[in-house]
Amino acid sequence: MNIHTVSEVSSYLKQAIEADPVLRDVWVKGEISNLATPPSGHSYFSLHDKNSILRCVMFRNSVGAEHLANGSLIITHGRLSLYEVRGDLQLIADLVHPEGTGEKQLELEQLAKRLKSEGLFDESRKRTLPKFPSKIGVITSPAGAVWHDIQTVVSRRYPLTELILSPSLVQGDEACEDLIRAIVQCNQEPGIEVLIIARGGGSFEDLSAFNEERLARAVFASRIPIISAIGHETDVTLADMVADKRAATPSAAAELAVPDSRELIRRISFCSNRLHTQMRTILNNARELTLRLPSNLMASLPDIDSSRITVDEHLKHLALLTKHHRSMNREQLGNYMTHLRSLDPAQTLQRGYSIIQNGNTGEIISNPSQTKLGESIEATIAHGQIRAVITDVRELNSRTKHS
């Protein structure tokens, strides 16, 4: 006998429920009760009918949370799971609609949600249309009024553009494949800069080809920017949401695709007149400047006479300064010479002084302690030198005899 813990049983049930393909993709209808919306943004509620209650959780950013209210009858899509902590069976809802919404509409919105999560509807990936396209591809039925309307608008607004019709079914079971073929064909046609996919109005069923996932992905994969004009203004298909631009009608799509030549002519005329006015202003200013130029040149000529007088005055002042500095320098030089002469040893010797040096080393003797008896000394006097031998040494103010 195998004995399991509560956690083991709960984990097994959770895995079994989530592995069931039916329970992973289930639609449930019921009335809401016990609705709770904590600050996290998630919604917790119960769905019940006459006999049963099913706990539900709907995480924030899911589709249709605005329809949640106690007592409301809804249809919700999600997957069943088990909350192991309490052992509660619960539906994790990702889509909610009020009761009465058709099954096909619910499936379409679920598909739209998935394509949106993959980034097919992102505005950041949608391309800017060329301003002056030379060739436009049109994918529509050649039998309807759509093709005629597009031709009329383009020929009126911008006849320089060439229209290339890629005929296609726009309704019925084979329409999706035919539309995809036309997109691929136009992408292979050289020179096409914009594609228009268009058809007139119709019921939800009439427009079903434009809600096919395969067509939405073909529009997304097109290298050429696409303008969609499918149905009436209130009809929005998956192809509209993936297209680079959406127009309310085929005629509006043609207006988006090409500029208005009359408006271009008006703008060119306005720019031409503005340019003419600016050039006339520039020429008038230049003419006035040319007429004033001689008088301006005369006024700007230097006063040569005044400049000459000023130069003469500066030269006189410079000469005086030079003379003054030379006199001062001469006087200062004489003082330096006098001072240098007073420091000349020859002048000192002329007054009877002598320079005594050691006869062997040449060392100048200024102190008796530098000498010894019997040493040879040399005395330099004003007019020669005298050699002598020391026989006696006396210090100043002393009669002591050293021997």
Explain the overall architecture:
By secondary structure, the protein is α/β, with parallel strands linked by helices. It has four domains: 6-101, Nucleic acid-binding proteins (OB fold (Dihydrolipoamide Acetyltransferase, E2P), Beta Barrel); 133-259, 3-Layer(aba) Sandwich (Rossmann fold), CATH 3.40.50; 302-343; 345-403, no CATH class. 40% of the residues lie in helices and 23% in strands. The chain has ten helices and 13 strands. It has helices at 6-19, 103-117, 145-157, 175-188, 213-221, 238-242, 250-257, 261-300, 304-342, 345-350, and strands spanning 26-36, 43-48, 53-63, 73-83, 88-98, 135-140, 162-167, 194-199, 226-230, 245-246, 355-358, 376-381, 384-389. A five-stranded mixed barrel has the order 1-2-3-5-4. Strand 9, helix 6 (238-242) and strand 10 form a beta-alpha-beta unit. Residues 398-403 have low confidence and may be disordered.
Key words describing this protein structure:
403 residues, OB fold (Dihydrolipoamide Acetyltransferase, E2P), Rossmann fold, 4 domains, five-stranded mixed β-barrel, 23% strand
Under the CATH scheme, which class of the largest domain?
A: Alpha Beta
Nearest-integer average pLDDT: 87
Gross geometry: elongated
- Unreliable stretches: 398-403
Number of helices: 10
Percent of residues in helices? 40-55%
Order of SSEs, N→C?
Answer: HEEEEEHEHEHEHEHEHHHHEEE
Number of beta strands: 13
Number of domains: 4
- What multimeric state do the chains show? single chain
> Largest sheet, order of strands side by side?
1-2-3-5-4
* CATH H-level superfamily of the largest domain: Succinyl-CoA synthetase domains
